[in-house]
Structure formats: C-alpha cells, structure tokens
Amino acid sequence: MHMAQINVSHLTFSYEGSFDSIFEDVSFSIDTNWKLGLLGRNGKGKTTFLRLLLGRYPYQGTISAQAVFDYFPYSVSERQMQLSAAEFMEELKAGCEQWRVIRELEQLGHGPEILYRSFAGLSLGEQTKILLAVLFSGERDFLLIDEPTNHLDQASREIVKGYLASKKGFVLVSHDRDLLDCCVDHVLVLNRRSIELQSGNFSTWWENKQRRDQFVQAENERHLREIGKLKQAAARTARWADKNESTKIGFDPIEEPDRRKDTRGFIGAKTKKAQSRVKQMEKRIHRELEEKEGLLEDLERPADLKIVPLRHHKDILVNIREYSLKYHGTGEPLFTDLTFSVSHGQRIAIHGSNGCGKSTLLKMILQKAGAGEENLFRAEVCETGTCETASGLVISYVNQDTSMLRGSISAFCGERNLEESLFCAVLRQLDMERGQFLKGMEEYSEGQKKKVLVAASLLTPAHLYVWDEPLNYMDVFSRMQIEKLILDYEPTMLFVEHDGRFREKIATATIAL
To answer: In the chain, is it the N or the C terminus that has fewer CB atoms within a 10 Å radius of its CB?
Structure first.
C-alpha cells in the first residue's frame, strides 16, 4: 500500500446546541499505513472524530486526505437481516468482490458457507467476522474501526485480535487493553484539553504517561509550595504598609507629648515612599504567582471511588450443586452438572462462549434471592439440581442491557433510593461532564449508560455484587479505576466480563461453563 498522509489542521467542532467544543483548534497528521489506536474517556469524541473523517458533520478547519475511508460497524437494516450476507454485501461496500470477502473470512477462521445463511440466524461473532471481512475486502481504503470486539466472547476476540494484528492502515477505537497492545503501533489520545500522538501501543503510552504524570505531580507540588510562600510574603508586606499608614493619623497628646501637629506631614511623606516600595513588591509577587500558577499542569487524575459492602452472617452466600438449566422446548441444556459456591470475600468470574447460559445463570441466582423479575422468567426455564442463596441476601445487580435507562438522573436516584449528590459525585469521578446530568439518560452514549449502572451498584450496600458484562463500551481509564476500587474494598462478587485483563486482576476464581 502506498503511503499517504491524513492532515488535520485547526479542527474545531461542537454539536449543535452544546456549550463545549469537542475539538478546539486541533492539528496533527497520521500516515495511512499506521495501525493507530484512538484512546479517550467516554464522551470525549472518539466516534465523533471518525464521523468527521467520513464527512458526516460540518466542522471548522481542514481535514485533507488522499485516502478513501470506510467505517465499521456497518449498519445492517431489518430487511438485510433477513437476507444472506452474499445478497447484500454490495450495498454495504460498493464494488465489494465476493472472492476477496471469502479470502478475508478464511483468515478469520470461517469457510464461505456463512455468507449464504440468513444473517439474522448467525451468532454475533459470525456477524462481526463477516462485516470485518467485507471491510477489509477493499484495496486502498483507510479503515475506521469502532469497537470491533464489544459483544464477542473470548475465542472470537482472540481470532479478531490476530486478524487485526496482521493488517495495517486503520484507526481502531477500543477499550480492550489486550487488543490495543497487540494491534496498534501508534496511539492518538484525546486528553481533557489536548491531543497527543505517540508511536507505540497502549502499555508503552501508559507507562510514559505515568512517569510524566509523576514528574508533573512533583513539579505541581513544588509550585504550590512556592505559591504558598509568595502569598505569605504578599500578606506580610501588606500588613507592614498598613501599620505605617495607621501611625499617620490621630495621636494621644498625653501618650506622645513631644509629637506636634506638623509631624503628620513628615510621616506622610515617609509612608508614601514605603507604600510605593510595597506596591512594587506586591506587583512582583503577583507576577511570580501568575507565572507559578500558569505552570500547574492539566492532569488526567482518575479520582478514587468508594464502596460499602455489607457483611452477611453466613460465610457461603450462593451454593450451586450438580445444577443444569435449559429453555423449555429446546433439546440441549445450556449447561449441566455445574457445581460451585460463592463465599464471603470471593470474586468469581463466570466464563464461556456467547450463548452458553452465563446471563441466564445470573438471573436464576437473582431470582432465588428474590431480586429478579421472577415469574416472567421461571416459565421459560427448567432446572435440575440445587441453586440456593443464603436467607436475607442483598444483591446489587448490573444488567448487561442498558435500554431501560430513560429520564432524569433525579428520578433514577429516587427510584433506586440513592442520594443524588453522592451519585453525581461518583459519575464525576468516572469523568462524566456536569452538563450530562441535565440531560435525559436516553441521550447518553453506551459507555455513559454503563457508568450509570455501575455507579448505582457501587452506591448500593450489598452482600453480593452480581455484574453482567459491566465494562462493555466503558473507557479504559474508568476500567482501571473500577479495578482499583474492587481491589481496595474487596466486595464479594459474581461477574461475567470479556475484558481479559480485568478478569486476571479481579477474579479470585474462574468458573468455565
């Protein structure tokens, strides 16, 4: 592939009716044969930036590129869902040739037959792989890839990871640290107020950033100490001037019999000189203060969160023995002979491919504890074996699905019995902008919705925290904050999460379904 440049200069963009610009006079260049990772907090404009490259919104400044862009995920319509991919892939990517798509699919570990099955009947993993194969079937395109592994299980993730690692000429937005480390050779980071471009992968950037942050932090502390000293000096000179000034007016003839009326003029003249000296000094001190305060750096400091788990009188909170589940009217059980227990202080990860019954198992446990939508669900599932929970068990649950989030933060807090100011403080710590609190939650990005659910769970005192894919769409910095939080407070947990790094750090045991 020949090399070309994409030049962005003086880019400024904000959404209509929004106060803050997402980009403010930003300039940089990228090469079209880079494998570029795009990083930043939720709501900081990663997807927006990809859409600006595609020319979807009007903006100020210039973006010049010789490259042709293409964007993943393609949106597949209801009508197309009913067809096979072979029938509609032309519509997704003009001039898309079938033999090329088949060649890409082979690299993704699939034969051509999935192109001829109805798209709706394929698993999420298969759908994703077809769309990636279509995306990479072009010749000279520069590809914009937005979260390719969001709903994939571990096996599919590994395949996509290997596949992307063998490609170049793309921008990848992902919150999965393993994927970023494996597939990118440059990172573009959207910070609070600036944009930085570095060669290397996520981990090299993060190490550099931590070193730099430590240095900046030390410098900040030094400047703050100096600012403190300067402020004291300013206060001293002001006191000295006032004291001199006050001797000028009014005196007690008994106390100062030798002082005459005209002494006043003399003290006045002396004070004037002293005061102009003081003014000079104050000016100098203020100038230094401004300089020092200007040196204080803009640090992305993820704040530490807090969590208050409850203590149950029983040690074993959930007990599962020789348990199996299946849906009525289907032949195969989801799983059989499952045996494990959750004791106080354990954090158990449930792991397995898509559709193996992870969410169903969590919902059954919620029901047993009286925390689920019982009857709705009981009708569809038959179970054998034992699944029991300790009596009076309080569970805090994060649902995989965020579609029920609508309306205001206030109403949400009222419903869930949460103190609103505290709730907003936690969201602020997860770097949500204050302006978001005034909007309806249906307007939030997927990552922001996840933060609402996780924050609500963290603030709910419980014996057991049951989280079903809590990190989908959530930015990498928030993931690291939540990791730290769990390790600090050690709540008892049962969770499903595809982020391998998170599982390695958090789980005390893993149950494979």
So the answer is: N
